[in-house]
Automatic annotation (TrEMBL):
Essential cofactor(s): Zn(2+)
Peptidase M20 dimerisation domain mapped to chain residues: 200-301
Family membership noted in the UniProt record: Belongs to the peptidase M20A family.
Record protein name field: M20/M25/M40 family metallo-hydrolase
Length: 407
């Protein structure tokens, strides 16, 4: 077989951007992805790519009911590797500050605008076009391994229910590696540009601290115990925790996110609630995070009663653990080769600053997972856009990578 070239697998740029524009025009904030899921299903079905709905139900906390859309190309050799292509269909809730229709899909100066244009309908369009191109590779008998496409719901929501459900239903069990086409460099730990591969991500825990003091007349605060003051001291102390460090992922971090307390009348506040974000690197477990918080409480020797509670989740397995994918993994090599072929340059290597479905794949499912995605600006905000040429480039890189990795 001859060495792959960009032209051999190239997607049609106009069709790719047209697909992206159509999807941006279908609003799909998390928990409201139904119309877009139907669109993705129909698009695949029109091309005889055998899509299936995969139901996602979470009756306990969110009462969410929705559907992932999945499709599989079956390679000729059951022993060849299976590659997962994962993209989320949902966006954040539409932001109010847009000066135009947030779902316009307007294209100007090589930028396509809309809520979710970059995060990550662009990445979704890229994997859909790549999957279509790979179906031809399969039809030519040149695909040995399987390619599994998963367009998932609720990545932006509180629990990543779509990808969580893939894992819990065993759909990722036979996969050997994963590509997630989330926006790349803009959310990287370091200052890099596309083309880039992000080979890991920090993990994240969210916990609540409830502080119970003792009410008293506000003119005599020494007779009470102010939960507000104690929670404030605790918030400051938590930022002084010595966090872990990792050679690839950098440092962990602690950020108190919210402090609720107060008194409408002249009383010493008796209760406070402090919500804390902790980003962790490999080696920092849930036990360590809890122990650190308990130590901060102990250090201050507070008179208030303090309780630390991790966020309730629909399933104990739902957690965003940190992961790193080995630079020497064959998927990384295939991505580097494909990037050279498509973009004519080596990709930058980096690590993701925050968390997402890729943590579920990289940590929980244990899959070597790489993020490669088109970049833009104003992600999650008004004026979000994606660079259209990068959408096409990522589609080509993913196609060629899959053809090689599974070929
Ligand atoms: Zn995203």
């Amino acid at each position: 077989m001859t060495e792959a070239t960009a032209s051999e697998f190239a997607v049609d740029p106009e069709e790719t951007i047209d697909l992206l524009q159509r999807m941006v025009r279908i609003p799909s904030p998390y928990f409201e992805e139904h119309d877009l899921a139907e669109f993705v299903y129909e698009w695949l079905d029109d091309r005889d790519l055998d899509p299936e709905y995969h139901h996602v139900s979470e009756p306990e906390i969110t009462e969410y009911e929705g559907d992932n859309v999945i499709a599989r190309l079956e390679g000729s050799d059951p022993d060849a590797p299976t590659l997962l292509l994962n993209a989320h269909m949902d966006t954040v809730k539409l932001v109010e500050d847009w000066e135009e229709d947030p779902c316009s899909g307007r294209i100007e100066d090589g930028k396509l605008y809309g809520q979710g244009a970059c995060d990550m309908k662009a990445g979704l369009a890229a994997v859909m076009k790549a999957f279509e191109a790979l179906a031809e590779v399969e039809a030519n008998g040149e695909l040995r391994g399987d390619v599994l496409l998963t367009a998932v719901v609720d990545e932006e929501g509180p629990y990543g229910l779509g990808t969580d459900r893939l894992i819990r239903d065993g759909i990722t069990d036979d996969c050997d590696a994963a590509i997630v086409t989330e926006p790349g460099p803009i959310l990287a730990q370091e200052d890099i540009d596309n083309p880039a591969l992000l080979l890991g991500a920090r993990g994240r825990y969210l916990y609540d601290i409830t502080v119970k003091g003792k009410a008293a007349h506000g003119s005599q605060p020494h007779k009470g115990v102010s939960a507000l003051v104690d929670a404030g001291r605790l918030a400051e102390r938590l930022t002084e925790i010595e966090v872990g460090s990792h050679e690839k992922l950098g440092d962990g971090s602690v950020c108190p996110l919210m402090l609720n307390s107060g008194s409408q009348t002249l009383s010493v506040p008796e209760r406070a609630r402090l919500m804390v974000d902790r980003h962790v690197v490999i080696g920092e477990s849930e036990e360590r995070v809890r122990a650190d918080a308990e130590q901060a409480v102990a250090d201050l020797d507070l008179d208030s009663e303090v309780e630390i509670r991790f966020r309730e989740a629909p399933d104990p397995g739902i957690k965003y653990g940190p992961y790193v994918t080995d630079e020497d993994h064959p998927l990384v090599g295939a991505l580097q080769d494909a990037t050279r072929s498509v973009a004519g340059t080596d990709p930058a290597l980096g690590y993701f600053a925050s968390v997402g479905d890729f943590n579920y794949l990289g940590d929980r499912a244990g899959l070597p997972t790489v993020i490669v995605g088109p970049d833009g600006e104003n992600i999650h905000g008004a004026g979000e856009f994606v660079y259209t040429d990068e959408v096409v480039e990522v589609a080509d890189i993913v196609t060629e990578t899959a053809a090689k990795f599974c070929g």
